[in-house]
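Review this fold:
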Amino acid sequence: MTLATDIIAKGARSEPVLPAVSLATPGDFFALLKPRVMSLVVFTALTGLMLAPARPHPVIAFISILAIAAGAGAAGCLNMWWDADI
């Protein structure tokens, strides 16, 4: 006998389970990115680009800053998720 038939044989409820509705707003999701910490990381990267001996191409510099901001935001989100139980 499989698990599915065991559950059906024991009279499991057949009512559909509705998904939980999230009450989070876009501002809540933005707060997960830790924007103040992220701005410090972006400022440090921008300062490094400006002080580099050779000027990088503006498109490369812009993409680099965006990637650094995305990485810092992702790190902030993962940190909030990891520390949720504290």
Remarks:
- DSSP finds four helices and no strands in the chain.
- Residues 31 and 63 are 23 Å apart (CA to CA).
- Residues 46-86 form one domain.
- The radius of gyration is 23 Å.
